Amino acid sequence: MATTIQISEQLLKELKQKKIYDKESYEEIIWDLLEDSMELSEETKRHMEQSRKEIEQGKTASISEVKKKLGL
């Protein structure tokens, strides 16, 4: 169900400035803004914890090491 909301001219101006492309909807802009404050999913939290463990175990490579391995 769609609804209409009232916003000030200043907020409208701010939202317009946040558009990445001309046809981006205000809903998309608002969702992008909200996403930054949303709770991480449990799956994402597990991946982050696994990454932390790999870093602690030294399972990392510098950019120069990766480039060398790839022959770049």
Question: How helix-rich are the residues, as a percent range?
Answer: 55-70%
Uncertain spans: none
Largest sheet: none
Radius of gyration: 21 Å
- With helices defined by DSSP (H or I, 4 residues minimum), what is the helix count? 4
Describe the structure in your own words.
The chain has 72 residues and is mainly alpha-helical. The chain is 58% helix and 0% strand. The longest helix has 15 residues. It starts with 8 loop residues before the first helix and ends with a helix. The model has no long low-confidence stretch (mean pLDDT 92).
Nutshell version of this structure?
This protein is mostly helical and 72 residues long.
Topology readout:
Elements: H1 9-17, H2 26-35, H3 42-56, H4 63-70
Q: What attributes characterize this protein structure?
A:
72 residues; 4 helices; 58% helix; elongated
